[in-house]
Amino acid sequence: MMLRFVADENLNNHIVRGLLHRNSDLDIVRVQDVNGLGMAC
To answer: Can you name the residues that pair with 6 across neighbouring β-strands?
Structure first.
């Protein structure tokens, strides 16, 4: 079973890397890596 998470810019990248290292079945998308979310700047 794959778990999916969205990490915002406030989540420490060390935590994201550690989670992926411990469990490769995680699908983590970082907000800063996604362009075009339809938000006006």
So the answer is: 29
